[in-house]
Amino acid sequence: MLNQTRDHLLLGGDAQRRYVVAGNAMLTLRSNNTDTHVTYRVEASEDLRHWLVYHLIDGGMRTPVLIGWIRRSTLAFSFRKVESVRTAGHSRAIAAWGWWWKQAATGATAPNVEVWGSGVCARCGRDLTDPLSARRGIGPVCWVHVQAILDVRPRLAGLAEALRADGFASPLWAHAPAEVCTVEAEHLAVLFEHLSAGTVANIAQVLELLYALEVSPAALRTLAGVAGALAVHAEGQKGERKALREALAEIAPPARLAGWWVPTTEEVKAAA
Ligand SMILES: [Zn+2]
């Protein structure tokens, strides 16, 4: 029996992928065909380079078994299973996850499977109070962090491409702050490429370039604010991440990425 209320049934498609990569997600896959279910926990690694997938047995009462991990490349989130003595008895859970994730990783909804969340935020563990957050399984603050990884980075890569192709003539620049457009297009493209790669080393490079390029103080603050927001989820050691965030915060507080002028994926596609 699923010991969950209807409120914890997650939205389909891309929302399920977002839930899994939030950082600390517990989810149950229920097959409508066989009326069976399996529960998993997916944790981001300390350096945020990959996500560890555990099979939870008896509702998490027994020690979770690591069944594999998810890695992100530029285009895909791929799952690799662990093959060991410990995972030998978990082949059904591994196969179910592998089949489901292959579809969910692309933002598709797997047929005949219900995906249940835990009822608390998949990143910070706080209670979810509003109905939309409950269906996403992620609270509003943590949702912005997930967007930083899944939306903002690819859009920055799209902006870098547009700058290289058309400079500021690309329609994507219509809503950009004036101070950012004072930076040379070629330099800005390099900065955005680093920001879209998103590792601690990349963002540290952005900080150095911002000083080396002698951009205006207003542009420096705007770009440092964006870099600071992305540094929260930069891939790298925890200590390095913290030091980088602090260095950037000395220039400007982290920008709110939701509602920032970075164009949507559709806008990037339309302008290409
Ligand atoms: Zn949260």
What would a concise description of this structure say?
With 272 residues, this protein is an alpha+beta fold.
Descriptors:
272 residues, 9 helices, 6 strands, 42% helix, binds zinc ion
Description:
This protein has 272 residues and is an alpha+beta fold. Helices cover 42% and strands 15% of the residues. The chain is built from nine helices and six strands, in the order H-E-E-E-E-E-H-E-H-H-H-H-H-H-H. The chain has helices spanning 14-20, 91-104, 131-136, 140-166, 185-197, 200-212, 217-231, 238-249, 265-271, and strands at 24-31, 37-44, 50-56, 65-72, 77-81, 113-116. A six-stranded antiparallel beta sheet has the order 5-4-3-2-1-6. Helix 6 (200-212) packs parallel to helix 8 and helix 7 packs antiparallel against helix 8 (238-249). The longest helix has 27 residues, at 140-166. The radius of gyration is 20 Å and the shape is elongated. The model has no long low-confidence stretch (mean pLDDT 89). The structure holds zinc ion (ZN).
Most strands sheet: 6 strands, antiparallel
> What string, H for helix and E for strand, traces the elements in order?
HEEEEEHEHHHHHHH
Strand order of the largest sheet: 5-4-3-2-1-6
Shape call: elongated
Per DSSP E runs of 2 or more residues, the count of β-strands stands at 6
Give Rg in angstroms: 20 Å
Number of helices: 9
Ligands bound here?
zinc ion
User: Beta-sheet strand percentage?
Assistant: 5-15%
Given helix and strand content, the structural type is alpha+beta
What is the helix fraction of residues, given as a range?
40-55%
Mean pLDDT: 89
Q: Are there runs of 5+ residues with pLDDT below 50, and where?
A: none
Distance between the termini: 50 Å
